[in-house]
């Protein structure tokens, strides 16, 4: 089973999608299942995990509806307000959707200390009951908070998105590396090798640019806690789908076939409890 463990769908709305700036013009379009499916087929990928890009229950329902209509969408990482005092009620309601596998909040846009807030942690504490993962979307300066979060909830499954977006463009690695090593010491955390090319110079990056960061991640997370994700369509800022897939598939040639299969899908199946 080969899975793209991280991609997005949206119907572009300039009023809502203000994060898509003019320099990201390629993203100012609708990106829907019919756009992704042929790309998956070209690379012998069996399916994908659709991840929220907006912070509303409407967004979650939009993705779940797409998943219901498209069997290749194996799972959804949605959004619910984890800080809501009624989060238990919302989780119970949404647990009836079998393709909802986890939740994510755009913590990279929040003030320092967000992951340590009592209301947020109350929401995190409620996820294990439903076997929901939590995807951690942060910048490197928030890694220390993430370490505290995963330490606090040792039975909760966490997945770090985009390797915490290292500062590849600025060639900064040391502080990020130290924090990644510490985070990886907690066995309830996996890491998506995704979204790295867009942290480099979009037009000029090469595989040699990305390799030091992949080396760090695979050295500490290994091949059983790393998941391939394309971050399509955001990845289009730095190259087409083939370029994104080839970067990771070429890098992991150094590992045995069985471990390559884990990275390219079996780990996603395991961590997200995906069905064939």
Automatic annotation (TrEMBL):
SUPFAM superfamilies: Metallo-dependent hydrolases
GO MF, one annotated term: hydrolase activity
Highest taxon of source: Bacteria
Keyword Hydrolase on entry: yes
Gene3D superfamilies given in the database record: Metal-dependent hydrolases (3.20.20.140)
InterPro entries, per database record: Amidohydro-rel, Metal_Hydrolase, Metallo-dep_Lactonases
Coiled-coil residues: none
Amidohydrolase-related domain boundaries: 3-273
UniProt keyword list: Hydrolase
Family: Belongs to the metallo-dependent hydrolases superfamily.
Protein name: Amidohydrolase family protein
Species this chain originates from: Polaribacter haliotis
């Amino acid at each position: 089973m080969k899975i793209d463990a991280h991609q997005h769908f949206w119907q572009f709305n300039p009023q809502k999608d203000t994060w898509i700036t003019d320099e990201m013009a390629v993203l100012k379009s609708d990106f829907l299942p019919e756009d992704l499916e042929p790309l998956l087929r070209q690379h012998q990928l069996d399916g994908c995990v659709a991840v929220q890009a907006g912070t509303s229950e409407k967004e979650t329902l939009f993705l779940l509806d797409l998943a219901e209509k498209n069997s290749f969408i194996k799972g959804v990482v949605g959004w619910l307000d984890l800080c809501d005092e009624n989060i238990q009620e919302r989780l119970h309601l949404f647990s009836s959707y079998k393709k909802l596998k986890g939740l994510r909040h755009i913590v990279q846009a929040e003030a320092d200390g967000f992951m340590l807030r009592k209301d947020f942690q109350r929401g995190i504490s409620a996820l294990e009951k439903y076997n929901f993962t939590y995807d951690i979307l942060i910048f490197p300066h928030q890694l220390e908070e993430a370490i505290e979060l995963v330490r606090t909830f040792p039975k909760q499954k966490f997945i770090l998105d985009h390797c915490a977006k290292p500062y590849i463009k600025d060639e900064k690695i040391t502080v990020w590396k130290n924090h990644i090593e510490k985070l990886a010491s907690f066995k309830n955390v996996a890491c998506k090798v995704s979204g790295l090319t867009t942290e480099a110079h979009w037009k000029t990056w090469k595989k040699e640019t990305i390799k030091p960061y992949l080396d760090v991640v695979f050295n500490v997370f290994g091949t059983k806690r790393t998941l391939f994700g394309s971050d399509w369509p955001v990845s289009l800022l730095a190259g087409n789908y083939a370029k994104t897939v080839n970067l990771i598939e070429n890098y992991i040639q150094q590992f045995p076939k069985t471990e390559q299969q884990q990275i390219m899908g079996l780990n996603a199946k395991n961590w997200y409890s995906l069905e064939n």
